[in-house]
Amino acid sequence: MGRVLKWIGIVLGVIVVVAAVAVAVVYFIGQNKLGNAWTVTPDAVTVPNDAAAITRGQHLAESVSPCVGCHTPNLGGDYLINDPSFVILPAPNLTAGQGGIGATYMDEDWIRAIRHGVAKDGRALLVMPSHWFNYMNDADLGALIAYLKTVAPVDNEFPPRQPALLPTILVGLGVFPIEPELIAKNGPRVDVPVGPTAEYGEYIGYIAACRDCHGTNLAGSTDPNAPQGPNITPGGGFALYEEADFIQLMRTGQAEGGRMVSEEMPWIEYKGMTDDELKALFAYLKSLPELPTNGS
Ligand code: HEC
Ligand code: HEC
Questions:
Q1: Are 174 and 181 in contact (CB under 8 A)?
Q2: Least buried of 36, 117, 135, 254, by fewest C-beta within 10 Å?
Q3: Ligand 2 centroid vs 229 CA: distance in angstroms?
Q4: What is the pLDDT of residues 55-81, one digit of tens each?
């Protein structure tokens, strides 16, 4: 009996030690990924400075790829998550004011952060949807940066992000992916002519990050950490939408059937999309196969 207990004790002891080592290793991997050693040399993109480009850039920042949704309407930033037991994660101040990055960011730094998910200080970004902005073409990215450089300075300082033990482990495991990991899975970037076509709608759908909440195939969220966007292929409730219903939803938040959707669906920002952009998105969503809702 004594010997059996002793052996059970040894086996349990070994299991505990192995588990502790595994946790330590995964934590170490997570810390490494969250370190500031990411290097990306982006392809050059021409950043214009004419009024038309700046207007286009403002439209993208406010209504299409809505930077303002997380970085706030004046782009002075705010805490996206502020839970010291989990993570303190500011969406930083993008202006040239005190505590803002705008004063030190060069064109190349903007491209690296928006398109490749790596900040000027070399840290891989979390939550910032660079893996969808990565699809933005050179003309739009140039216009966006042109606008960002004109934004009025706002003084607003934040501490560096601080992930606690658990999220660091989840980053180590890849459960919380960092942006460069996600970008590695992207398809090629394509240039499409602007117009109310399904093809252009596909482009808008990417750079507006619909997939962040509606799933990679748009048939419903598969990410338990993101808002649970429903199936928006013709295989879901979206089948009932006519073009006018869709435009009404995107402009007013009122869904087909009259219900107001929650503000998790960022219609407050998308409402500024042009008619052509909304028509293009609608044509694209209707052109998708009738997919069953993910996870059902
Ligand atoms: C869903 C929320 C969200 C949206 C939308 C978003 N960002 Fe961010 N952004 C963040 C967060 C959070 C961080 C900080 C991430 C970190 O520190 O890991 C960040 C970081 C950045 C950085 C790096 C700043 C630094 O510290 O060096 C830049 C630049 C940036 N965002 C620009 C933009 C632009 C431009 C847009 C619109 C095209 C945009 N963001 C849209 C959440 C967002
Ligand atoms: C930040 C998360 C998020 C993003 C980004 C997002 N959505 Fe949503 N969306 C939601 C959520 C959550 C709902 C469900 C809201 C509700 O029912 O109250 C929703 C609802 C909808 C609906 C209504 C569906 C129905 O069955 O009535 C449509 C259509 C839609 N979204 C389209 C889009 C499109 C197109 C984009 C990109 C341009 C987009 N969404 C981006 C979260 C998001």
A1: yes
A2: 36
A3: 5
A4: 999 999 999 999 999 999 999 999 999
Amino acid (1-letter code) at residue 27: Y
156-166 burial, b if ≥16 CB within 10 A, otherwise e? Answer: bebeebebeee
Q: Is 80 in the pocket of ligand 2 (CB under 6 A)?
A: no
- For residue 223, the ligand closest to its alpha carbon is 2
Minimal CA–CA distance to 151: which of 101, 189, 188? Answer: 101
Looking at every residue in the chain, the average pLDDT score rounds to 95
Count Cβ atoms below 10 Å from residue 28 Cβ, excluding itself.
13
Nearest CA to ligand 2 atom 30: 232
- Mean pLDDT, to the nearest integer, of 2-19? 92
Predicted TM-score (pTM) of the model is 0.94
Handedness of CA 180, 182, 186, 192 (dihedral sign): negative
* The two three-digit tokens of residue 91, written as one number: 């969406």
d(CA 178, CA 131): 10
Question: For 160-192, what is each residue's pLDDT tens digit?
Answer: 999 999 999 999 999 999 999 999 888 889 889
Give the model confidence (pLDDT) of 133-150 as tens digits.
999 999 999 999 999 999
